Hints:
single chain; 250 residues; alpha+beta; 2 domains; 5-stranded antiparallel sheet; 7 helices; 21% strand; elongated
Amino acid sequence: xxxxxxxxxxxxxxxxxxxxxxxxxxxxxxxxxxxxxxxxxxxxxxxxxxxxxxxxxxxxxxxxxxxxxxxxxxxxxxxxxxxxxxxxxxxxxxxxxxxxxxxxxxxxxxxxxxxxxxxxxxxxxxxxxxxxxxxxxxxxxxxxxxxxxxxxxxxxxxxxxxxxxxxxxxxxxxxxxxxxxxxxxxxxxxxxxxxxxxxxxxxxxxxxxxxxxxxxxxxxxxxxxxxxxxxxxxxxxxxxxxxxxxxxxx
Length: 250
């Protein structure tokens, strides 16, 4: 009888010790083990501590008053867009040394404009020269999706071709843009129209209510420009003097 009682006592004692140890192990589970903080947030006691500019239970939201701060830190426009920032909230902000005016939300590529005009009385240049390898665009309106020389991201190639094909480059619109650096260019028709729509109309960029050159050629004597008073794109003689604003891709 005593032997049975001892065995029962031992059983209960072992059970107690086992349960006690299990409870202790349960209490020692890391409260951050299942917490995933986004945007470089760190977990502390089961809660996400968010870096400046981000908020939410998992740092998933952007503080829209901190958009410029985040861009200055190197956060890309695409990352901000994916975290809920709208395109209109991005346009006009400084990134890559310019004002954001376009973002391709499929691949993250975009465009910025120089923060000020490069000139207000510049010629397009190359009057009398139909530049080899530069598309001649005569239709109005051109299709910015399909017409070579007018499209988004055509400006850089246009500018390089203009500078290679002109006998004298000094002071012309394409040269003034490229003079900012190898990545800067005179915008194509589609690119300049995006500057007009996403910057000028929204009150960004300090543009003049006047004419601006595009890098899209119409022929040996004329090229395309845009009137920022009404948004119309028309052709004028290459030796006309109008405003210039450079663009850059990122």
